[in-house]
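S2.1 Query sequence (Protein SCAI-like)
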Amino acid sequence: MAEEDVVPKTFRALVEGADRKFARVRDFPSYGRAQGQHYFHKVFKAYMRLWKYQQENRAQLVKAGLNRWEIGEIAGRIGQLYFGQYMRTSEARFLVESYVFYEAILKRRYFEGCEVKDLRIRFKELRFYARFLLVSLILNRTEMVKVVVEKLRALVDDCKANFRETNFKEWKLVVQEILCFINIDTTFTIPSSRPFRYCAILDNHPNSVPYVARFHAKKVVKFRDAVLMSYHRNEVKFAELTLDAYRMMQCLEWEPSGSFYQNHPAEPKENGVAADYSAASGLIDMNLAADMTDPTLPPNPRKAILYRPSVTHLIAVMATICEELPPESIMLVYLSASGKPGHINASHVETSGGSRRTRKSMLASHNSLERNCSAPESHVNGVKESSDYYDHYLWLGPKGNGGSSNLYPGDIIPFTRRPLFLIIDSDNSHAFKVLHGAERGEKAALLLSPLRPILKDPSTADISQNGSQFTFFLTAPLQAFCQMVGFSLSDSDMEVLNTAESILSTAFSKWEVILCKSPSLDLVWAQVLSDPFLRRLIVRFVFCRAVLSAISLSEGSDQYLPLCLPQLPNSLSPKSDVVQSSVSQLADHLKVSHCFHFADT
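Output structure tokens follow.
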């Protein structure tokens, strides 16, 4: 073998070896604590060796015909590797590392300048843009998302013009998906709004911090793992991330208190001179993300995010996580799906405007349905019959109504042997009330959505267009409130927005103190009160319930109200002074008091 052939052949061998290992780790499921960790380290080591080798032998490799897009492909694989590890662990540093590599590929134009007629490379570039979009979306890099969307749209148009015999319909749908997503997501529509993630500066309320710190329950569990699933027909999504799952996953992560979202990697220099990337180059600082993360924050809870799973797959994931759950830990399960296909569509909602007579007639028209949804439970000697657990369900399936696509309340019961925090967002959520008292070991915490949303503009009620109202309240309460009453938020309303956020923060702080001081607080809630994510969900539920209660009529309005089991203290009921006064204050501030019916306090 000639000496000049050794380097390129060694490089090709390293590429093939790394790709084989990558194919193995790529197919590992993204849930479970032990899944694929050994293989991840092996494939990561293989790509580190490959990356270092191409850096050290770049001149010879370029002479032997190494293309820039090949370096971009290697960097893209490393970005994929990091993103996959983020999805398995929820560790922010992996997401940031992935972003660093994808951003470098974009800035150094590794795929640009390739032969236009090479369809294979064009597809690689399309996939790169789609993956970079997903990473940027989760990192809330709004400006980068807009840049990449335009590049993706231009590339799809270019491919259609140059490869007329190839169908690019799927890529046109990708562009439509991301445009729809960013037109709805408030991160893009209201850039100054608070992040979905838990921000230590904004979400730690100074007045309640001492009470939370001193609070001691008889038992305390740690929030370590979550299962997030959203399954609706034609729901807003990008790739395999639905809008509701995106909002909830961010709600269960820490917002770095530093400014790494605004940081941009400095351009690497060689011998004090700015590097020239016009030739084949592979200089990407693999430790750059260390300066972009926040080491002071606790780890994020692990999250298994499932896209349109079968019932058996969902149960298998829950079983795996439940089995691996550390002692004294709790699992959060978020399920967003429709109920029986025969149920009235979510677009049939009560409006927050109009006459009381109109609203009464709307409620009356749903009475028969509500009686069916909330039929009395069958009991024998005071004990629930097993049929109660299998009368109603969530519908996880395509068109049609096969029993294999039904998730019943009874399917959840085996997982109550461990602590469970269950959120059901569905037009059939109240059917899951039967779980309360049917637990097999640990009493479960249940947050159940209303059966119907209430919105001033009924067109915004369609989950396929705007996501779920209940999930929106749990993840972005102010934006959900404004959407409900038809109040338009924009960056020109900064003072109004800040004051509204201040009203909510003050209310949440008071409610946290009440929870800490309440002697009637059930242990189910007390044991999770020290966890910032779950505590925030609880007080946001209190807000959601109070708002919907004040906007609903008392007659037949149960279907428009969320439920929690066990019950929270009466001191935080929708009609309590401390809760109702806060909702009234917010409504007065936004000049939407006419939408509500507050009791005299």
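Residues 341 and 401 are 7 Å apart (CA to CA). The radius of gyration is 26 Å.
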